[in-house]
Fold each of these.
Amino acid sequence: MNKQDITSIKQLLYTKKKIVIVPHKNPDGDAIGSTLGLFHYLIKGNHNVHVIVPNDYPSFLKWLPGNDTILKHDIQTKECNTLIKEADVIFTLDFNAFHRTGNMETVLTESSALKIMIDHHQAPDDYATYMFSDVNMSSTCEMVYHFIDMLGDSNAIDSNIATCLYVGIMTDTGSFRFRSTTSTTHKIVAKLIEKGADNSEIHNNIYDSNNYERLQLLGCALTNLRVIPESRTAYITLSQNELQKYNYKKGDTEGVVNYGLSLDGIVLAAIFIEDKKEGIIKISLRSKGDFSVNELSRAHFEGGGHINAAGGKSHLSLNDTVEKFISILPSYNKALNDE
């Protein structure tokens, strides 16, 4: 995003606008944090702002300031579609292709609103008038901070904005341990704490809100953990029956894939989760070093993401999906063992 873009956006936002902010389907901490952070900033400009999510999100994110204002498209479809059709501006955050919004794809594509993308994923589609796209950023929340700063408005960041942005940066960097965490990331986090983000409380709200059934599900997942030493790979499976046994709720498997990656010598980790309602196997991939799970997921599992973190899906059965995954590993053995 260049200086001319910023000047144009400042002029655009100078007068009151109808604004909709949208994250991707199955929004995570970065998606909810960035949309709510931008929401709190824009309402300070006296804009009419709505955050519309494609579907529900984990309960451990529902304490964030502004959560009660979020609209869910899959439940409040008519109201959401009207807001999108009447919007002057639509911000799309933490995704860069409309198909990532599920059933919202059509209404977003058909909308005549000016669109502004803020995102850090690879290979963005060309739908936005203004595009702030940077794959080297740790998170979309870090980008929202930069966006507000580029508008010359960092003084407007209050405790609500700081809290929301801190959540997304913390979760998307794996509590600041991923390689995407830079010195700039830490400087921004320090500023967010100065603005009122309570880092200890935020961490507790996100990571220390376990219940008995969620821990039992984690135990089941770890029991299902398998290792393929020759490919330096670990994978976990969870069937629909296992999810139901432990009363699975959205977000209960967040971060479980990282247990596989934590094993000594492992470079690639995967988790395969059966979702009979959608008729797919949901896949999360993680890696170390320069091994790109983004490329692997794009090539084999209709997905993508970042070099070291990506998602995908399979329309095969759970067993057949795992067999497919195992069958493609030999072609990656050299890259995996070079790490």
Amino acid sequence: MSHSQNGPKLQTVNLVHKASSIDKQWSPRIVAEMNDYQFKVVRIEGEFIWHSHPETDEAFLVLEGELRIDLPHGSVFVGPGELFVVPRGVEHRTASEAETKLMMIEPRGILNTGHEGGERTAQNDVWI
């Protein structure tokens, strides 16, 4: 949030509205921070790349649509209003059949592709 002389800006965040205003898919945007954690919204469709985050768990909260999270031993389906946490170090791939809007909660500085890199890596610390 922007900080002024009077402290942080205090306002509600409409997650669906924020996610809908992102111009392209697979481009997470920060909507809030809490301590060292960032709340990011994103629009996705299709499949991401397999990756892991050895340093942190990663939480996914579905706003609209259905998220499929592929894990080493099968897939988890996450619907609107549902939350799933991928434990640190567990390889995973997010996917959706149709456009899905979701929020991710993770520590500041975590890349969306983990340590895999590549063309799907999104720029960090972009607010919407």
Amino acid sequence: MPSRDEQLARLEEEVAQLRQAVASHAVIDQAIGVLICLHQLSPADGFTVLRVASQLANTKLHTVAEAVLDWAHTRQPLPAPLKEALNEALRAYPGAGTPES
């Protein structure tokens, strides 16, 4: 049986992981919201676009979501690999258009 200190350390690690997951999920949900608003996508399609762009750019989903949010807040151009990946992912949705920057 693990000692009390070992149990506490394990629980603290689990809590830290859960906090990170909640924060990451919020960023992804916000990025989906940006795609929904700008490209008239459903929530499911917005998530699919992010996921596909993540795979195409070989970049973590959370990183793609952060880039979309940064673009939405600053209107600074997306990094070229992410812009290309998002454009390609959006092509599957007629009428969705492509990111402006």
Amino acid sequence: MSISPRTARTSRYVGVAFASAALVFGAAGNAMACSIKDFSAVAECDGDKGVIRVTDVDPLGVKAEITVYLENNGADLRQVGSRTIENATADGVTVTFEEDWEPNAEYRVHVTAENYVDDDIKPNLIAPAEACETEADTPPAASKKPGKPADDKDKDVPSETRTSPTPSAPEDTTPAGSNNNNAPSPEGDSNLAETGGDSNTGPIAGAAAALVALGAGAVYYSMRRRGASTR
């Protein structure tokens, strides 16, 4: 049975269409498959501590093993740690490694994802040039001693202008009854003040002499009268 040219052309077109569809689905499957491009790493600060975070955005959610190494001149110096990511999504799933990294330190991040990935994230991870800031200790606030609050009048007055209390006069420590020869004499006193005399001594003495003379005269006069009467 011979095939007509028209049928042959139709069959050829159908074959080409199936082949094209296969290529498209194959390309789409490869695009959806887990790859090293689905993984990224960053070194950052969590408070005052350094951390390394690795994120997986594989939409298929293939189980992946993440291992981080500290590098030194192209060789692994030590292993920082290993984490497993399961059920990743296109939005991303992140695992965190606690690592107090030094500025500009270099890290190699290796990813193993079943039969899809067995490779390092390129290029190697380089830590920031500045270390994480250490939180400064805050000194405790000075405690205030309880006491009577200051008057409102003194609140707005500078301390140097406030009136200081007047010091009290020193107490007299001289024993009672002692004669302080060094104390100055009261104004107007003469030398008689020390013996009990004062400024009225002169008039008093004159009055006493006059009384004595008057008395003597009276006695003399009475004696003369008595003698005259006896003759």
